[in-house]
């Protein structure tokens, strides 16, 4: 097979035929144009597409609510009282955790704050927080507000781990330098496991080891990692992590988030935290007025009884992840993104540069493609062709071919359209 023929529709279709999980595309609603042709949807890093089963899962809970009212907490087909537990095993597998370390609750930024109540406990000398300079804005705001809440000036307390000048990607050596120089003053590292902008997947275990060597707590934002890479959270040793479920986990706009608290903290009742009745021992929760008895593990971070309709959508999605398995997903993902990368590099122009790492172990499915001298009209033109990507000023399009519902044909067609626009 020559290089030239790899860059052809026939070859892309051949790859789809050989793809052992290609059939899952049919399990999703793919948006269509007026002629009934599928959009090329590369925005699973922002909002994942809807599984066709989601409606059925939500309908089940609506029916049980209609038929049982409050009794649905026990009588529903999937009783609401323990509903979050139905999500735990698969959620744990997807992030490489033990079930006791994982729970679905609240939303991402809320969970980051709740986790920082426990894992950011600064004192006068050890109070600084390290984030990536290109952290997602919400994470930055959350961290700055935590610093202020504890009486510190973010200008003093916030340390940015920056790419070197002229580079986009982070180097672990530079984090090491920050820790060597200021480690005694640093209380917490809060790092995006997969950077939302560059798509760089960082070595979580190395980050945990570096932070722990200086007695810092280490937290990971997995918004762009969950359902995308295999973060092996337990083995990495990070103290906590949080993520949302509406991106690669396809659980619907604004759906609940998930969090991880490492087993080493599971039974520590002295850890400060905010509490509610759902953090209390489930065996005595309804005796009410009992002295607070926190549940071990991640479940002890819950506050409220959770929204079942949102959890039903998460269950619909996680059941698919459970069936496919992260190994198969990641395998296809690497092949799909490598093919995408190959095709982009074939475009004969010096305007295009991929800023995502070329090493498949240092990225998930996303490629961040810089187009020199482009402006947002390029993104608009792609959208006009029903190629859905994510624009980031000044000149980067973020494209996420997801292994569950994107095809090799998708990435081929996408690059053909991009080629005509540049
Ligand atoms: C998507 C995303 C968020 C969004 O936070 P919400 O609380 O779910 O609105 C936060 N941080 C990162 C890194 C993200 O990618």
UniProtKB/TrEMBL annotation:
GO terms for cellular component: cytoplasm. Its EC number is 3.7.1.3. Pfam families: KYNU_C. One of its GO terms (biological process) is L-tryptophan catabolic process to kynurenine. The modification N6-(pyridoxal phosphate)lysine is found at residue 247. Pathway: Amino-acid degradation; L-kynurenine degradation; L-alanine and anthranilate from L-kynurenine: step 1/1; Cofactor biosynthesis; NAD(+) biosynthesis; quinolinate from L-kynurenine: step 2/3. Keywords: Hydrolase, Pyridine nucleotide biosynthesis, Pyridoxal phosphate. Pyridoxal 5'-phosphate binds at residues 108-109, 136-139, 221, 224, 246, 277, 305. GO terms for molecular function: kynureninase activity; pyridoxal phosphate binding. Its cofactor is pyridoxal 5'-phosphate. It catalyses: 3-hydroxy-L-kynurenine + H2O = 3-hydroxyanthranilate + L-alanine + H(+); L-kynurenine + H2O = anthranilate + L-alanine + H(+). Catalyzes the cleavage of L-kynurenine (L-Kyn) and L-3-hydroxykynurenine (L-3OHKyn) into anthranilic acid (AA) and 3-hydroxyanthranilic acid (3-OHAA), respectively. Belongs to the kynureninase family. Homodimer. This is Kynureninase. The lineage of its organism: Bacteria, Pseudomonadati, Bacteroidota, Flavobacteriia, Flavobacteriales.
């Amino acid at each position: 097979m020559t290089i030239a023929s790899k860059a052809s529709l026939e070859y892309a279709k051949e790859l789809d035929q050989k793809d052992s999980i290609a059939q899952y595309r049919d399990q999703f609603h793919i948006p269509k144009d007026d002629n009934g042709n599928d959009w090329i949807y590369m925005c699973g890093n922002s909002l994942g597409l809807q599984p066709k089963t989601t409606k059925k899962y939500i309908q089940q809970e609506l029916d049980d609510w209609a038929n049982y009212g409050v009794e649905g907490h026990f009588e529903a087909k999937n009783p609401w009282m323990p509903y979050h537990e139905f999500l735990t095993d698969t959620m744990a597998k997807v992030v490489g955790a033990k079930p006791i370390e994982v729970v679905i609750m609240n939303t991402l930024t809320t969970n980051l704050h709740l986790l920082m109540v426990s894992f950011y406990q600064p004192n006068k000398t050890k109070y600084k927080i390290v984030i990536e300079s290109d952290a997602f804005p919400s994470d930055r705001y959350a961290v700055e507000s935590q610093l202020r809440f504890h009486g510190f000036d973010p200008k003093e307390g916030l340390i940015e781990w920056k790419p070197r000048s002229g580079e986009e990607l982070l180097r672990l050596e530079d984090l090491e330098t920050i820790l060597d120089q200021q480690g005694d003053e640093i209380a917490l590292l809060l790092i995006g496991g997969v950077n939302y902008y560059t798509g760089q997947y960082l070595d979580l275990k190395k980050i945990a080891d570096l932070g722990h060597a200086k007695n810092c707590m280490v937290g990971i934002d997995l918004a762009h990692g969950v359902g995308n890479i295999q973060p092996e959270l337990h083995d990495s040793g990070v103290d906590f992590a949080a993520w949302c479920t509406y991106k690669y986990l396809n659980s619907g706009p604004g759906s609940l988030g998930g969090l991880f608290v490492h087993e080493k903290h599971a039974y520590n009742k002295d850890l400060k935290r905010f509490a509610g009745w759902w953090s209390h021992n489930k065996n005595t929760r309804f005796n009410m007025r009992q002295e607070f008895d926190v549940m071990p593990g991640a479940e002890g971070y819950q506050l409220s009884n959770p929204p079942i309709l949102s959890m039903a959508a998460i269950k619909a999605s996680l059941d698919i992840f459970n069936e496919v398995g992260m190994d198969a997903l990641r395998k296809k993902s690497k092949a799909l993104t490598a093919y995408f990368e190959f095709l982009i590099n074939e475009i004969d122009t010096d305007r295009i540069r991929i800023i995502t790492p070329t090493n498949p172990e240092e990225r998930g499915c996303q490629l961040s493609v810089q187009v020199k001298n482009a402006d947002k009209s390029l993104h608009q033109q792609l959208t006009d062709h029903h190629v859905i990507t994510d624009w980031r000023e000044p000149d980067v399009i973020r494209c996420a071919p997801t292994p569950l519902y994107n095809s090799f044909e998708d990435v081929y067609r996408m690059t053909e359209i991009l080629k005509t626009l540049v």
